[in-house]
Predict the 3D structure of the following.
Amino acid sequence: MTLRHILLTGALLLSACGSPDQGKAQDATFGQVEERVVPRDAGAVKASFAPVVQATAPAVVNIAAQGVQTVRDPFWGQFYSQPTGSVGSGVIVRADGIVVTNNHVIEGMSDIRVSLADRREFPARVLLADARSDIAVLQLEGVEDQLPVLRIDTSETQQVGDLVLAIGNPFGVGQTVTNGIISALNRTETGISDSGSFIQTDAAINPGNSGGALVDMDGDLIGINTAIFSRSGSSSGVGFAVPATMVQQVVSAALGGESAVVRPWLGVSGEAVTSERARELGLDRPRGLVVTRVWDGGPGDDAGIREGDVIVSIDGAAVDDQGGLNFRVGANAPGDGVRVGLLRGGREQTVTARVERLPGDASLERATVIQSGALTGAQVLALNPAVADRLGVDPTTRGVIVGAVARGSYARQRVGLQTGDVVIEINGRAVTAASQLNDVQRGSEITILRRGERVSGTIR
């Protein structure tokens, strides 16, 4: 067994769920079409989105991926392999055939083919796939000409209410354009990622749109469409796109030859300021993140950040929760200096922190199974910031995480340990190594973190 972390999000649907059988949109010309240009003001936009579409659609591609998955026969219990496929969208961001799409479009696939708007088709290989951001970067093979591209706009000048277009391949019918507005910015409580800050739009996004372009009225790429909230599986007007800042970070890592995206950390964690907490702190309104933990010797500690401080901004961008902090810090490179806006004692101040790689080994190979005592049968691994981050746990958490619990074991049947639990104390002593869980006796007091809640009890 391997250590694993499971996240269930009921209403959130990744939008690349289309059939691998693609339909084809037919080309059609209806008489002479007058030349149009990209609109320069709101009045011109009212006439038509056609100029923006003509400038951007050629760089949006369809992706068909094939692979093999292992499944278990529910009746006989035997395992066998069967073909699987995925249909999605992508965006050409460099003329020599660099394409951005969603990780979940190509994850586990071995044969990837990309079709351009002009019906040319190319095989593609994965340069880098980043599950955390749900962004993958592909290289088209056999490209001889300069391909049309979309410029990645990382300026973050968008505003709620701005007009946007979503371009992709919904339901595999062929390239389709929908329009809407930016409904919200910096959405973090989405369940998609704990390090993401998403653009929300009401432009229709449906299965197969994953990896497609979200473009502004300047014809620039401001996001990659990735997920929808829906009860029916189709668009309900609540879609999310990975912002261009994160897209550019993954692209830069891929083009730099990296095998993974390295996200730095500040070494602090906290809780969003509620109305009640704002009154306690003397704030005029709820804003910011109350620091509850600071990693000893981490960037935040070195910069003088303390527990009880309220972080309100990173490099001038507002921060209101842990996801927002992770995104703003993670958009930098290790070694970069970031300006952290703080409220301390009712006064606002700014400190500079030099963000770093998460310390520790992120490998899961060191996981061990407890062989004796009341916790026998639990597969565990001591946390460090790197491995905690990989498993979706707050990197400042100290303890031993449970990866799996054997059926029928004492740890499962009597103690009630579950996958994802973090054992932080035994008999009041902090737990920092897996060996501390050997020979734990009945009657011992155990304290765990379960889905962020602290739970204590006596082992019977």
In short: The longest strand covers residues 79-94. The two ends are 27 Å apart (CA to CA). Residues 1-11, 16-33 have pLDDT under 50 and may be disordered. The CA atoms of residues 64 and 87 lie 5 Å apart.
